[in-house]
Specification:
Elements lengths: L6 H9 L3 H10 L7 H8 L3 E7 L5 E7 L6 E4 L2 E7 L6 H8 L2 E8 L4 E12 L11 E14 L28 H9 L6 H7 L4
Antiparallel strand pairs: 1-2, 1-5, 3-4, 4-7, 5-6, 6-7
Length: about 200
């Protein structure tokens, strides 16, 4: 693996006397491949947290949700997931277009475990996986450079109550959010044409 730590990491490791432990973690826990156990964990998740930064280094972190299996492990180095309709800002995905360095955090709140996957992301509007995700705009693929489990001690325990009704699903019409309906009524010109036509008030 390439050197994982920079001067900032080392400064704090030395201050709190964790350099030896950190070196052991980098050597024995952090890898660049996705194991069978990692695959099972990733593909059972229904959410992830996606960290990006723009060309100037300004950060952004977003939540991505779907049904279990919406993140696919393509091979031992690659994961893929769909990008669904959002607020139109494209903060995360615009950053990927600028440069693809990303971090993904997967958390199981019920079993209190988590995993990090860092890598290089690309987006593709013609990805062959697109047909498998109704409502997806494009597919994000991430080539892993670092994969490792994370200490779970501070994960709060939650239980799933209900998955979002807005996740696109096959043979099921996806409802529109109230904020889009409000724009359609009061400022329709702000909406993309596809939404403007669909949400136009009945005359």
């Amino acid at each position: 693996m390439p050197e994982m730590y920079h001067n900032g990491n080392r400064q704090l490791q030395d201050k709190f006397d964790t350099r030896r432990m950190a070196d052991l973690m980098a050597d024995r826990v952090v890898g660049d491949t996705i194991s069978d156990g990692d695959k099972a964990f990733i593909e059972s998740r229904d959410m992830l947290f996606f960290a990006t930064s723009d060309a100037a280094g300004h950060p952004n972190c977003s939540y991505k949700g779907g049904d279990p299996g919406f993140v696919r492990v393509i091979d031992e180095h690659t994961v893929a997931f769909p990008n669904y309709d959002g607020n139109g800002m494209y903060l995360s995905m615009g950053n990927v277009v600028e440069h693809g360095n990303v971090g993904i955090l997967f958390i199981d709140f019920e079993e209190q475990s988590r995993m990090r996957l860092n890598g290089v992301a690309t987006i593709d509007e013609n990805d062959p996986l697109l047909a498998e995700f109704p409502g997806a705009q494009f597919i994000v693929r991430v080539r892993a450079t670092e994969v490792f489990g994370n200490c779970p001690r501070y994960i709060h325990k939650y239980q799933l109550v209900e998955r979002s009704k807005y996740v696109p699903r096959e043979a099921c019409e996806t409802p529109d959010p109230d904020w889009k309906k409000g724009l359609a009524e009061h400022a329709p010109d702000l909406l993309p044409e596809r939404d403007r036509e669909r949400l136009a008030p009945a005359e």
